[in-house]
Amino acid sequence: MPSEFTSLENVERIPAPPADVFRRDYVDRQRPVIIQGLFAGQTIDGVRTEEDAVKIFGDLQLPVASEIMSAFAEGTPGRPLAAPELMSLGDYLEFSRQHPGTRKMCSEKPSPPQLLGSFRLPDYDSWHDAISSFFVGNAGNFAHMHFDCDFRHVLFHQIFGVKRFILVEPRESEKLSPIGNLAWWSIEKFSQEDKGRFAAFTSAYDCLLYPGETLFMPACIWHYVEYLTSCMSCNFRFGRNRYTRALAGLFHPSRYLQNIAWRMSN
User: Fold this and answer.
1) I need a surface site. Which of 61, 91, 194, 212 has the fewest CB within 10 A?
2) pLDDT tens readout for residues 126-139
3) CB of 160 within 8 A of CB of 51?
4) Mean pLDDT (the chain, rounded)
5) C-alpha distances in angstroms, 230 versus 95, 142, 180, 191?
């Protein structure tokens, strides 16, 4: 897909597959894939631009705060982080246009009923242990390289805007010099050229995610996310078993636990 942005683009793009194919070829093989048309014909699929989002979700309330790594860097030792402030989606997008360098964003907050009511999930899972979060941020924001400690699989849906994902399998964890579930390396500070070198060094999946596309990320995988434009996204976290649920609840995160959970996640 032509783009002004760059990545290795080594993640397969497919039309929405049947449930058995999705499970056999991607979940069971712990293989990322970009699904196109997962929510075709549904309300959420008609939102592809900021203007579309403001028309449908403009009054949606966002808990907005500084991106977490930036908040730590800017904070005072011993002081708690500032509480989020509420902004409507429309107000946040206008604020980010007026303050293009802001690190304020809505990061991984529970998806509200207004958003959840705009789609139906496919029959890829029973969804009994699933949760959903949403994200809104401006160009230049990011999610530091990390793995998720709940050990759920993720379907990550891009509503509007473009994001870059760099995904690294647990077997490459030693190269990230991790502390807990966070990589030591601040990839967000790398040049675009060095991000490509890093992706090659770690045998990473590296892709751009466009409006209307949904990225499947296997449980336990490392991921760095870069907001290349203003973006709105939501995720659906699912598919734990009794082993990964126990590991997530009983132990502190580490790359050793991550690798055990990776092997038990199917």
Assistant:
1) 194
2) 999 999 999 999 99
3) no
4) 93
5) 11, 11, 30, 20
Q: Centre a 10 Å sphere on the Cβ of residue 80 and count the other Cβ atoms it contains.
A: 7
Q: What are the structure tokens assigned to 187, written together?
A: 């990839």
Measuring CA to CA, which residue among 143, 159, 203, 190 is closest to residue 11? 203
Domain 13-51+109-264: give its CATH superfamily. Answer: Cupin (2.60.120.650)
Other beta carbons within 10 Å of 142:
22
pLDDT at 70 over 80: no
**Alpha-carbon distances, residue 196 vs 80, 135, 199 (angstroms):** 36, 25, 5
- 78 — pLDDT class (breaks 50, 70, 90): low
Boundaries of every domain in the chain = 13-51+109-264
For residues 80 and 46, the model is more confident at 46
Decide if pLDDT at 1 tops 80.
Answer: no
Task: Round to the nearest angstrom and report the end-to-end CA distance of the chain.
Answer: 32
